Amino acid sequence: EGCCCIAIMVQKYQSPVRVYKYPFELIMAAYERRFPTCPLIPMFVGSDTVNEFKSEDGAIHVIERRCKLDVDAPRLLKKIAGVDYVYFVQKNSLNSRERTLHIEAYNETFSNRVIINEHCCYTVHPENEDWTCFEQSASLDIKSFFGFESTVEKIAMKQYTSNIKKGKEIIEYYLRQLEEEGITFVPRWSPPSITPSSETSSSSSKKQAASMAVVIPEAALKEGLSGDALSSPSAPEPVVGTPDDKLDADYIKRYLGDLTPLQESCLIRLRQWLQETHKGKIPKDEHILRFLRARDFNIDKAREIMCQSLTWRKQHQVDYILETWTPPQVLQDYYAGGWHHHDKDGRPLYVLRLGQMDTKGLVRALGEEALLRYVLSINEEGLRRCEENTKVFGRPISSWTCLVDLEGLNMRHLWRPGVKALLRIIEVVEANYPETLGRLLILRAPRVFPVLWTLVSPFIDDNTRRKFLIYAGNDYQGPGGLLDYIDKEIIPDFLSGECMCEVPEGGLVPKSLYRTAEELENEDLKLWTETIYQSASVFKGAPHEILIQIVDASSVITWDFDVCKGDIVFNIYHSKRSPQPPKKDSLGAHSITSPGGNNVQLIDKVWQLGRDYSMVESPLICKEGESVQGSHVTRWPGFYILQWKFHSMPACAASSLPRVDDVLASLQVSSHKCKVMYYTEVIGSEDFRGSMTSLESSHSGFSQLSAATTSSSQSHSSSMISR
Prior knowledge:
Helix content is 30%, strand content 26%.
């Protein structure tokens, strides 16, 4: 401490406040013992006094020294630079009346190539006049150094940080030395026997108040704060800032963890910048630190993502979400997640039974926004719990652990709008809650999991991905499993533990709670309907067909559709030749575009089944109101046609005479019209990374989530209907 140092990074360093629980005068006696040389700082070879000034009353003592440093640098560099020692000028200004010491230092050697400035100050603790505070700041600017700029910077940083750490030890060493010599008290300065006029004493108290309001050392040089501004609560806040604005070293260790001097400096500078510029609620220190960690303590990058996040919080009123937002009942009943005690490290534990959760049903009943809001409220609660656990466990806890149980995961979870909603949620959480996930335990991963993982993992940053542990089947019960991370007593009952877990069980969201396609379309948010779903009309004699061209055999065609009106038959065909696109001009049976959705036929009337095209899936009859999902692994390249066809009721078997109802029904054109909303996507086989088998076998592992499963194994397809 106190400038025996060389420089720091290319910019600035700002220390936290270090508190010595000793009076200022005793600390000064210890500090003075460092000169002219100090055995504890090997590089500090010697010092000579260049200038000295003492005021008549002895209150002010300014001393300027030229310090000789033997910098630990490679011999070659010293040779090139042509020097053995580096000289610094250090000016100490002691004001015994105000009980402050200001230290300024700058380099004399190479001052045209490298500019190093350092500022330190010792002051009286604002709340306890028998304690002393220390702070330092420094800047380094390397203009040029024979092409060795980055080497010089590294040497400077290394020397500087090691000296910062040493500073406290040195003062404590000399305090012990004083104590051994029987010196445990040094009287305060008092003016010579002439009593001063009342005026000077009042001005000195003003000055003392000013020096207490140090934010950065230079601030102590600025005077003109009235003494009462600090004491009377109603007075406006002093411009320079009060001691609460500061972080002291002990607080950092207790609440934020072990940080290197440079990390502390980044935190203090970023926090100071926020206090000076940000209107509105300033995030807590531990949250500022998360943004710094997420960007490896690059202060500019961290500032950028943090500002974006602060704006986002304001726009969405996230600060008030826990107090003001009540999740809809559907979420409370069907969202299978909740907080459950804590892990072995004291991190809050969140349990999510994703496999039991009807993500599709939740998105259909609520839309994406409510789901996102719910996830945000979970994250806000997580931040609150981290703070609480930090207090309870007596050590910094800044992240939580998430346990995801995939028992029951199936094709239903691969429903793309659901996956897209999930990706969007992951993106928002990654951007605004960085470094909050301490560990993610994924349990009972089924064979379909690699597919979901392939879709999701590109959106998760590498830092976060390293925290994932994935267990298939019952592996979590074995060595290296759950017991390494969670105490036996709190392993949830559904994982064959003994702890009753209050997390809702999930299950299918009843169709009656779905919002209709119309409601969704009319909503401002339109959500995924406009971006993903297309609607089509199907008439008697005029099916709706779409073409999918496959170049790479063994791709996967996935589909998802809702039968909004009427009953239909769904077919998939393959053809080696491309069907002629429907003519745009004719409004014949070929192509009808109506407000109710489009209607296109592609299969030429002259084509024969078995010759021009073939059926690759058994026909699937779908009733009004059903949701159907499925996939088909293509065996050949070529053209695949997905077809939705009007399902005509078989003629009444009892008599050949038409029934009155049927006649009436056939007169109403509307009964010949069905409506579907569909979405299809082709996933390239390489995206599956060998998890094809997981698709083939996924239908056998379907849980009670699906009411009916149809599958034709010969074509490797699985399709399912949820009624």
